[in-house]
Amino acid sequence: xxxxxxxxxxxxxxxxxxxxxxxxxxxxxxxxxxxxxxxxxxxxxxxxxxxxxxxxxxxxxxxxxxxxxxxxxxxxxxxxxxxxxxxxxxxxxxxxxxxxxxxxxxxxxxxxxxxxxxxxxxxxxxxxxxxxxxxxxxxxxxxxxxxxxxxxxxxxxxxxxxxxxxxxxxxxxxxxxxxxxxxxxxxxxxxxx
Length: 193
Description:
This protein is an all-alpha fold. It contains seven helices and no strands.
């Protein structure tokens, strides 16, 4: 449980309230955007170190995506409240997040398992992080090139986000079917015994 990758994921979780404080408490969207960029940029480090140091853990498999989901949710909701994100973009990502997160929770309760993270999902998350950071740093005419980066990363990120969400639905269906089949097999063995 006390591993370097888990520590990195935990620090990323602790930075989410700092992000919100910068954005909403200090009214510093550019600072919040840079911090979000740091949270997003370190996303791959915990997974890489877990594999490289042979420190993959069950808690790490929960902490890493939890840090991602909370950071993205905080950026979306905070950016929506502050008016620094394009409304339609924020709503589109919030809807996808709610659907995928709700489905993941339902799956975890039903079969005590989860859908493995896809590489394309990691890329989509990175693009969303970059776009949200770009919107926050560049919004309101603060630094227009970053606003354009928000759009350049945001549109493909949003498309990939929904595509991967659909793939996760297929993955979840296969897991549920396999779980149901395993339950039917155990019931048949108990009856035969």
